[in-house]
Amino acid sequence: MTDEASAPRKVTKLELLESAPHFSYFEYEEKQRLVPYLTAHKFMPGDFLITEGEAMSVAYFILSGRVEVLKGNVDGDRRRLAELGGGQIVGEGALIPFGQHASTVLIRTREKVIALGLAAEKFADLTINDPQLAYKILYDIIRLLRQRLNEVSNRLADTIAD
């Protein structure tokens, strides 16, 4: 006989959305409308979310855990560019319209990662069915890309100054 009271309760996508920093400025009703477009993912340490050179098809909104961003060089070695955690997005290029985009980096988990995925085709549907919601997601991605560009610019300035 199974003790159902001791079995862990499965968390719904809406509950995951409620805990996600990416969607903190979304109204509850907007989160409800977004749920059908998202998939929940659990990645174990060492799993690859995105592989360099492959077509990007899903953007992942990281809720918990850590991933490392790696880039191959001409010698075939991989260099660590960054480590990202909860509140970050990876694979956002999959949501940019007008063409297929190949990943320029490799994303590998450092520990167990819980993420919400938004597939490119689901996002395309969202832009047609609920453009205001799609705009809010793109706005968040633009904010993130601006932050990353500032970080890279600062690192480059520090490198040049040395």
In words, what does this structure look like?
By secondary structure, the protein is α+β, with helices and mostly antiparallel strands. It has a single domain, classed as Jelly Rolls. It contains four helices and eight strands. Strands 1-8-3-6 form a four-stranded antiparallel beta sheet. A hairpin with a 5-residue loop joins β4 and β5. The radius of gyration is 17 Å and the shape is globular. The mean pLDDT is 84.
SSE layout and pairing:
Blueprint: H1 13-19, H2 28-34, E1 38-43, E2 48-50, E3 58-64, E4 66-72, E5 78-85, E6 89-90, E7 106-109, E8 113-119, H3 120-129, H4 131-161
Antiparallel strand pairs: 1-8, 2-7, 3-6, 3-8, 4-5, 4-7
Question: What's the short story on this structure?
Answer:
Helices cover 34% and strands 27% of the residues.
Q: What labels describe this entry?
A:
four-stranded antiparallel sheet, 162 residues, single chain, 8 strands, Jelly Rolls
Q: If strands are numbered along the chain, what order do they take across the biggest sheet?
A: 1-8-3-6
Percent of residues in beta strands?
Answer: 25-35%
Helical proportion?
A: 25-40%
What does the overall shape look like?
globular
Cα separation of the termini: 67 Å
Please give the radius of gyration in angstroms: 17 Å
**Which stretches are poorly predicted, pLDDT < 50 over at least 5 residues?**
none
The total tally of domains equals: 1
Q: Helix count? A: 4
User: What is the H level of CATH, i.e. the homologous superfamily?
Assistant: Jelly Rolls
